[in-house]
Amino acid sequence: MRLRNVKGKQEILNNHPLIILNPEIYKGKWQELFRNNYPIYIEIGMGKGQFIIQQALRNKHINYIGVEKYDSVIVRALKKINIYIPNLKLIRADAFSIDQIFNKEISLIYLNFSDPWPKKRHANRRLTSKEFLLKYNCIFKSSYQIKLRTDNEELFTYSLITLTNHNYKFKEITLDLTKNREKDHISTEYEDKFVEAGYKVYALSAYRDN
Ligand SMILES: C[S@@+](CC[C@H](N)C(=O)[O-])C[C@H]1O[C@@H](n2cnc3c(N)ncnc32)[C@H](O)[C@@H]1O
Q: Domains of the chain, with CATH numbers?
């Protein structure tokens, strides 16, 4: 993703009610922060936030947390929000530290168009690598659910294998999401671009009992 510097970035980040700049302090306390017992779903690498914002607006009884590594990208997501959304928080964090942020609190992880890291020597940076799946074990609550969408066939195949190796089963596997989108489908910014350009989108929904 191209990163442009956003004017007044720090001020926006410091003052926005939905942003959590020091998420580690809420480890084990996210439910308290939301002040309810609704399940918590996260999107890792939420980008400009279209997907997670729409999910939160549509599903009031689910708490959503968008995780994004770059300030300038988070600010672009914040700029899209003009009302207070009580069931949404956005956090600035590298997914690598996800197990420092949550402790057995998450019911579902969305991975939408995650960076594919095509070189073999970078495989452990893929968000479905063994390294990350082990971290997710520490953050999932009672059962595990991962939903992934990607335009990248290699990342998709790789994820099918790693998830299988970690005892996940598949509820859905779609080789062309554009042909199987439900009426109320919420797309992501990258998905819109790829679909418009005529690319295929692969998707899967995986689960594992604790
Ligand atoms: C290709 S974009 C996809 C954005 C969005 N999910 C979508 O589908 O439109 C990948 C996003 O993941 C973020 N990202 C990449 N690696 C990350 C990491 N380790 N932790 C958190 N965010 C990350 C990038 O900054 C970028 O915003």
A: 37-209 (3.40.50.150)
